[in-house]
From TrEMBL:
Protein name: Class I SAM-dependent methyltransferase
Region annotated Disordered, chain positions: 228-253
Enzyme Commission no: 2.1.-.-
InterPro entries: Erg6_SMT_methyltransf (IPR050447), Methyltransf_11 (IPR013216), SAM-dependent_MTases_sf (IPR029063)
GO terms of molecular function: methyltransferase activity
Length: 287
């Protein structure tokens, strides 16, 4: 298998008019609301399995306190990073390969008043543009499936963390026969651009990079429920949200995932239910 060039990964995610689509989705979700909060964005800026509920759980595992420096590896549209800045008082830097995602992340961060507390840079996460020991914590949420050289990725993260730094991996990992995995998926339309690995491969590479894996959590049950909800026909273009109702806004996940979002969601769900894939969390500490 030939690894895709970074541009191939970026092309998979790039839409060209994502900011406009998100702006329209937010106008439909919150008509007449010029001022938004991080909580209002959950439906458009977090599209890892489990969504914001998973973000909150992972945040608890980061053992944060105000002022800690956190690296968000493959930060996407910035939802998890903004959550850390807003609700945990962390100083967050996100890095993502896709320039459009970085631009939208900065725009959304400015829109909710968090500029300066959550920053975003375009870059290759296997060659991080930071000095040694620049961060106290790091996490990556559904990133490794796009990266073939995970050994280099983990070595880079180890380099930029302080001693005994905490690192959380939350990736979709391979359990069954890779030949049976169905595509398209949110991170790849075809297997040639997907770099799924088994949990034991992750553990081995993390140990070689200087980490001890101190806990592991299989998130299949939560993922199945969230994916069923995401594929349940809620779209930002059809149902305005009433903020006064106190309910959770519909998840317009299709905005970030493109026109074939429902197919991608159904394929992920099918692969998980057939025990081919599992969203898995590894909590790691530097030795």
């Amino acid at each position: 298998m030939t690894a895709p060039q970074p541009s191939a990964v970026a092309r998979h995610y790039r839409q060209g008019d994502l900011r406009r689509k998100i702006d329209e989705a937010l106008d439909r979700l919150y008509p007449g609301h010029a001022t938004l909060t991080t909580d209002d964005l959950h439906g458009v800026d977090e599209f890892h399995t489990g969504g914001h509920a998973a973000t909150r759980e992972l945040t608890d595992h980061l053992e944060l306190k105000a002022g800690l420096r956190v690296l968000d590896v493959g930060s996407g549209l910035g939802g998890p990073a903004r959550h850390l800045a807003q609700h945990a008082g962390a100083d967050v830097t996100g890095v993502d390969l896709t320039e459009e995602y970085v631009d939208v992340a900065r725009w959304l961060t400015d829109r909710v008043g968090l500029t300066g507390r959550a920053r975003f840079e375009q870059g290759d996460v296997t060659a991080l543009p930071f000095a040694r020991a620049s961060f106290d914590r790091a996490w990556m949420l559904h990133v490794g499936m796009n990266i073939e050289d995970k050994a280099r990725l983990f070595t880079e993260i180890s380099r930029v963390l302080t001693g005994e730094g905490l690192f959380i991996v939350y990736d979709v990992m391979l359990l069954g026969d890779p030949a049976l995995v169905r595509y398209p998926l949110p991170w790849a339309s075809e297997p040639e651009h997907s770099f799924l690995a088994r949990p034991q491969e992750y553990r081995s590479l993390l140990r070689k990079a200087g980490f001890d894996v101190v806990a592991e959590h299989d998130h299949r049950l939560q993922a199945v429920q969230s994916l069923r909800n995401a594929g349940g026909g809620h779209h930002p273009t059809s149902t305005p949200h009433n903020p006064a109702s106190g309910d959770t806004p519909p998840a317009p996940i299709s905005v970030a995932m493109g026109s074939d979002a429902s197919t991608k969601i159904s394929k992920v769900l099918q692969n998980i239910e057939e025990d081919l894939l599992a969203p898995t969390e590894l909590i790691c500490r530097l030795r």
